[in-house]
Amino acid sequence: MGGINVGGGHGGKKSVDSEIPLVPFIDLLLCCVMFLLVTAVWNQLARLDANQQQPGQAAPDEPPPEEKIKVVLQVQASGFVISSTAGDRIEIPKVGDDYDMEALREKLQERKRLEPNRRDMTVAPEDGVVYENVVAAMDMVVGEGFPDMSLSDGSTL
User: How many domains does the chain have?
Assistant: First the structure.
């Protein structure tokens, strides 16, 4: 068994030799390392990426960026609204007291079929909407092929 010798007795004094068991310390260290490795992997899988839109200033030397059509999913108290700066608007009302997630999935899939190269969409929750419903909508947007999802306030469009 591994141990450390911490000194010896000389000059007629009592020996102060003692053994510190290293095996339990090594076991504890290995358990801690394994725990940290496992939680690091699961932490990466449970992550939900979201970007917050912030106004920025363009450099004066750069030409103005071309206008890009923005697609916004509004989470309102009455249901979902998928709209864009091009002027189209699709309303998905609630079914009873619950949001219609299946209808939202169908509309997002339809939007993806119309624009297969689009990767971005903005989720804009209204004030007072339950956080659980906002996260479910964000998860649905990312799951249906819009990985560059960003989160904004309800006054985006």
Answer: 1
